[in-house]
Every structure is written in structure tokens, then in C-alpha cells.
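U., I forgot to send this yesterday:
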Amino acid sequence: MCGAAALLTGCHRAPATAAQADPGAEPSVRLVPLKPRPDTTLRSPVTSRTDGCLAAAPTVEKAPPPPFALSGRLGLWVAQIDPVTLQPVRAVGTNPDSLFPLASTYKQAVLWALLQEFDAGRLSPTERFDVTRENQSLGSYPFDGSNIKTLSVRMIANSDNTATDILHRRVGLQRVQAVADGLGLCRTRLILPTRDWWAAQAGLSATFNGTSRWASATGETREWLAALIDDEARAYRADYVQSKLDRYFETRHVPADDLRVHNLSTPYEWGTLLAHEFLHSGLSPRAVKWQREVMALGFGKSALSWGPQITAFGGKGGNGWGILTYSGYFQTKDGRQVVYAFMQHGADQTYTMPNTRRAFAWINAGVEAVLGPPPKTGAGQDGTGTKPHSPNTKP
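Result:
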């Protein structure tokens, strides 16, 4: 049986061979810090309002209905992206401007912020960290002495919450939030490490409990409140946070709480972030190599019907109590660039990972509405006589 907190971390631990990297190993990508490129602050010509915030999603065709039933609130954005303007060439959507909890999908923003810090010369991929009482989050965790490169791999490939929190705090809470702020994604919140939102949801943050300002806070107010919530969360052991969180979910959870405390976004804003992340990141070539290698380890390619036609892929998913999210970017053999963002909140199922096949059936329906059906490659769509599948893996 899965405990409530275990639901938030995939309800199982990653295989030891994949999850426990050698703490003494050097990064597989040798990186030399560079001065920031002069164009790293340029913003692509996406449609913005006069206040600098991204405008609402353009009017597009409604996404096809989910092929298989999915409960709760649902959102989807699938778009072929012009690689120069980053505008949608063709897109479909369902509730593209509705807010959803991101769960672990947010972790790719930590990686992007981390690589910006690397390019600025403020951190090294060989910098090492131990797991401590203050930085341990829920679920499995890295070996002591793991370096930044190893932690970045665990964060995406294993969805390791402790690795994420170590990197998020090393970069700085506001610098991760700045990934969204710099793109005018004014409804996207990325500032809290994982243990912070769980501690707050479990009732362990006096700051969160004592203010009604957090959910709508922006700018310096949000940064100040987030720092207080972070200090309070680090005062408790991870197992204590887990026990309190279990009790919360068993006795008083309501989905509206998720929107108050979690990092969140809309399918359209997240799709916009993905387009910039993979096509206009402003990173140095060495940092882009690191980013692409790590993001390719995220789940999704094997579940896409276009998988055999994909030449580049990056993806990340997340799950929680009644929450499931999947997002990704891919390039096809004929050069088309696609982003997708699937979001489910308030599902009838508390443990949502079994919804993965249903989620990707809908994502694939959206992709095929945008690109058309994938070309035939032989006995099966992937050349092996079988259709693409979604193994029982962590998002």
C-alpha cells in the first residue's frame, strides 16, 4: 500500500542501478564556464500584454476529446512551434489558460536556472553536496558527496526530490522563479522547493498559515514569503513532514489547497516555457549539451506515437494526490518542433500514475491533430511489431 507521501514521489523507488550514481564519478559532459552570451536576456516575440505578461492563449482548435476517460480538471496544449518566432504554427488546446499544479514537472525549470548559473560562472558541475537533516525531502535520495551533474541527472531521470531541493536552493529560490518571470509568464509559480510546499500543505509553516497573501503574491512579496516558508520547512525532519502530510491527506485534503501551495502554471504558459527552454534558452553550447542530455532522460518519448520519427526529445512529468502532469518537446525527422503539456488535477484516483497510458493517449491524439498520423515504419509503428508503450516508470 502506498502512503500519502509516497504518492507524491511515484510510490516506488528507482532501481538501484539507475538511481545510485557513483558519488566519485566525474560528469559525463566536461564543461568549462563561459561568460554569459550577450543575447541571454533577449525575449522572443511571443504575444504579450502591455504589462509585460504573456497574453492568453491564441484561439486554436479544441483538442480532440480524451480517447479514454480521465477524471478531474483537465488541460492540454499541443503546438508545432516556429523555431524562429516561437509562435504556434498549428496548435490544439483544452483549458489552455486554466491553472494547474505542476508537481515534479517544474523540475526542468530548476535545471534551466542551474545552467544559467553555470554559464555565469557561479557554480561548477563538480561541486559536491551531502544529504542533511535540513535538505532531505520526501522519497529516495542521493549518496552523500554527489556532484551537481549527478544531482541534475537524478532530478530529471529519477524525479529525486532531495536532489531537486539541493539544486533549487543552491541556485536560489528567486532565480528559479525568474525563469518564468523573464518570459512574462505571470501566472506561473516556480519558487518553492518540494519540501517547502509539502510542509506548508501539512500545516507546518506559520507563514503560510498566517497569511492570505501567498497565493496571489508576486515579485518581492512572493520572494520574501517564500524565504520564510523555506526556513520553516527546513526546521523539520523529512519523516516528520511525511507523517503530517499523510495525516493531512487522510483527513482534510481539498483540491483547492493544491493551487494555494504548489508550484503551478497553465498548459499554454508551460508550453511557452518549453518552447524557450529548448529553442531559445540563451545558454552556451556546453550548457545546451548538458541540458539536452539530461532532459532526454525524462519520461515520454517511448509513449509518443510519433516516437520512431523523433530525432530530439526532452520531457518531464509529475504526480501527486489526484495530480498528474506530463510535458515535453520533440523534433521530428522532417524538422518540425513540437511542445506538449498535459495537466490533470482533482482526479478520482489518489495515486495517478496508472493514468499514464490514458494521458498519453490524449497527448498523442493532440499531436496527431497537429502533425497528422505518424508515418508507417513496418510491422509496427516503432518497427518492432508493437505500438509505443508507457512502462511503469517514474515521471
